[in-house]
């Protein structure tokens, strides 16, 4: 009964009192709308007063995620959020030559003689860097034409690894030893300086892919294929001028080295390599590649810098390989004598970004590995000057966050992913032996 009469009651109400009720509701809505409008206008007025009182120069500070208008202040704020990850610092070499590897005597928490110490790392907003565990090329007459004569390169490299790890351990409140891209992010989040290891030259492998694996187990995460000398694996570019080729790029053994680097997750570093070596490595590597400390040859024409035809092989397009070019600050690679400054370094950054895109450029200062530095980039405290210069040139905060470290972390993580997939697929380790070696016994079974 109620189901039949309920609609009739509602109809009767709409017929007599419904119009008055609807009019009251309309009036209430109108009052609410006027209140919202007036509140909004009042808010606009208050904001206008604030802008007038505070001044337009500081308006950029209002709101989350924005940067100050002043480039220097903006650079420091940005680096607080996205600190520098430098691809190449030669601090262990300073310890070797200055203190005979005596880690206990190193005053890293005080003023150091070159470009790097803890106070200046903190001032420069450094979140991580590769400690280069470098030893020089052996004398060519000593190691022989085929690179088979014994040298002390592997021993000395192990000592440099020991030095780097010793300093990291000595200052645990500052440094954290890191071996993965996730480690780096976690270290930065904890306010530590992520510390990675890089071997600067395959001459430090003693012609052995087995040594490569042992370096990886010790925490090394990139190997530069050459230094200023050719080796059993690949051709070097030389130094300022190109040297005659030996292998015309990678040797057959060098191709095998790349394959094992990909399999274990060791980054392929192309700084110091000849153009042909770089091209071979880019085409053969399954993983992204890096230049840990190189600049642009089109900006300053020296052999150590990367030419545009090689840069053009980097990217995410068809036929390209992902990678990053981490720009070197060494004056010899930046500009003619006496002309290197922060603006010239920025020219290299911008040129590389224009050729390959801003997602493929980073920082590889070479601090502590050079005697001279550009004006405005005298040591690790000066990174903000470069960021401020790029801000003046129109780079936004996202592009700069990639440049300071995000681009490297992407490449590093991608190389790790390639290694995981190769290992999951059951890819066998490389056990090839350098064909020129004659130290194996001639046994037959």
Automatic annotation (TrEMBL):
Keyword Hydrolase attributed: yes
Keyword Transmembrane helix appears in the UniProt entry: yes
Membrane-crossing segments per the record: 35-54
Catalytic reaction annotation: an L-aminoacyl-L-amino acid + H2O = 2 an L-alpha-amino acid
Compositionally biased intervals (Basic and acidic residues): 9-19
Enzyme superclass (EC): hydrolase
InterPro entries: Dipep_AS (IPR000180), Metal_Hydrolase (IPR032466), Pept_M19 (IPR008257)
GO molecular function: metal ion binding; metallodipeptidase activity
GO biological process terms, semicolon-separated: proteolysis
Residue ranges of the region described as Disordered: 1-21
Stored CDD domains: rDP_like
Protein name, as recorded: Dipeptidase
Organism expressing this protein natively: Scleroderma citrinum Foug A
């Amino acid at each position: 009964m109620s189901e039949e009469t309920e609609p009739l009651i509602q109809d009767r109400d709409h017929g007599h009192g419904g119009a008055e009720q609807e009019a009251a509701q309309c009036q209430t809505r109108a009052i609410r709308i006027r209140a919202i409008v007036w509140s909004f206008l009042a808010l606009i007025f208050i904001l206008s007063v604030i802008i007038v009182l505070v001044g337009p120069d500081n308006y950029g500070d209002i709101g989350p995620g924005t940067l100050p208008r002043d480039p220097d202040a903006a650079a420091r704020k940005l680096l607080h959020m996205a600190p520098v990850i430098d691809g190449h610092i030669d601090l262990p070499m300073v310890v070797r030559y200055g203190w005979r590897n005596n880690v206990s005597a190193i005053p890293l928490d005080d003023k150091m003689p070159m470009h790097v110490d803890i106070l200046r790392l903190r001032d420069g907003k450094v979140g991580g860097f590769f400690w280069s565990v470098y030893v020089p090329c052996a004398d060519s007459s000593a190691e022989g034409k085929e690179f088979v004569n014994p040298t002390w390169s592997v021993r000395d490299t192990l000592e440099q690894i020991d030095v780097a790890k010793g300093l990291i351990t000595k200052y645990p409140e500052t440094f954290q030893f890191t071996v993965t891209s996730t480690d780096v992010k976690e270290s930065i989040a904890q306010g530590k300086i992520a510390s990675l290891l890089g071997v600067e030259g395959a001459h430090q492998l003693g012609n052995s892919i087995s040594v490569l694996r042992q370096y990886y187990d010790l925490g090394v995460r990139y190997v530069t294929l050459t230094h200023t000398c050719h080796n059993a694996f690949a051709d070097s570019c030389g130094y300022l001028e190109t040297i005659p080729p030996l292998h015309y790029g990678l040797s057959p053994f060098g191709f095998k080295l790349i394959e094992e680097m990909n399999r274990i997750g060791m980054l392929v570093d192309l700084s110091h390599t000849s153009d042909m070596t770089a091209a071979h490595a880019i085409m053969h590597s399954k993983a992204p590649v890096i230049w840990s400390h190189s600049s642009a040859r089109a900006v300053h024409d020296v052999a150590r810098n990367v030419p545009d035809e090689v840069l053009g092989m980097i990217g995410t397009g068809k036929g390209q390989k992902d990678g990053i070019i981490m720009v070197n600050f060494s004056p010899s690679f930046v500009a003619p004598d006496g002309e290197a400054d922060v603006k010239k370094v920025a020219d290299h950054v911008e040129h590389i970004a224009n050729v390959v895109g801003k997602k493929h450029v980073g920082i590889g200062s070479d601090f502590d590995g050079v005697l001279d530095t550009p004006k405005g980039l005298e040591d690790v405290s000066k990174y903000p000057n470069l960021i401020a210069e790029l801000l003046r040139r129109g780079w936004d905060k996202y592009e700069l966050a990639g440049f300071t470290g995000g681009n490297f972390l992407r490449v590093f993580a991608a190389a790790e992913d390639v290694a995981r997939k190769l290992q999951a697929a059951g890819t066998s380790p490389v056990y090839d032996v350098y064909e020129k070696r004659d130290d194996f016994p001639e046994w037959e079974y």
